[in-house]
Design a protein that fits this description.
The protein is α+β, with helices and mostly antiparallel strands and 180 residues long. The protein has two helices and ten strands, in the order αββββββββββα. Strands 1, 2, 3, 4, 5, 6, 7, 8, 9 and 10 form a ten-stranded mixed sheet that branches.
Length: 180
């Protein structure tokens, strides 16, 4: 019984650490909120803050101005990034449905951007018509590089797993009936 208490004592914090590390992007830092763009209102978030060269998602919400309802179908959202230091460097993509929140659209520019100041442009086109492009500027930091937290969490998980397995094996040996 004492062994199980120790296992729970060590295992529960490990689960909390894993959920923190595996946390998906939320909406992030608001860059534009309900910006009028033709027949739509567009809101844009980025996460992390600042964006990094290896982690640069842009999340967009398209809203119907009159009803304030999210538009999630029959609309195409385009996200464009232009490097301000060299305007010939431009990236554009069509945002897909966000994995975390189906009311939003997400565009990933991971490992495509370089550190520096970028202009982000967002537009939408659908049954209600095409929007104007709304823009804002954002800084992109260098790539984070190797994340030592993953190594630490992996090592902790392996140590706890080995300890639990060894404890279970030792408990089974103690429960064997003795020969009379």
């Amino acid at each position: 019984m004492k062994l199980r208490a120790i296992s729970v004592f060590l295992g529960v914090p490990l689960l909390f650490i894993i959920t923190l590390v595996a946390d998906a992007h939320g909406t992030g830092t608001p860059q534009l909120l309900n910006a009028p763009a033709g027949p739509y209102l567009l809101s844009v978030w980025t996460d992390p803050d600042p964006l990094r060269a290896d982690e640069a998602p842009v999340v967009v919400a398209v809203v119907e101005p009159a009803t304030q309802e999210f538009i999630v179908s029959d609309v195409v959202v385009t996200v464009r990034l232009r490097l301000l230091a060299d305007p010939t460097v431009e990236l554009a993509t069509t945002a897909g449905s966000d994995d975390t929140n189906r009311l939003l659209f997400a565009a990933e520019f991971n490992d495509q951007v370089t550190p520096g100041r970028w202009q982000v442009g967002v537009s939408a086109a659908g049954a209600r018509g095409a929007s104007d492009e709304v823009t804002f500027e954002i800084d992109v930091a260098p790539a984070r590089g190797f994340n030592w937290l993953w190594l630490g969490v992996g090592g902790l998980a392996a140590a706890v797993l080995l300890w639990v397995l060894a404890s279970m094996r030792g408990g089974a040996a103690r429960r064997r009936p003795r020969a009379g």
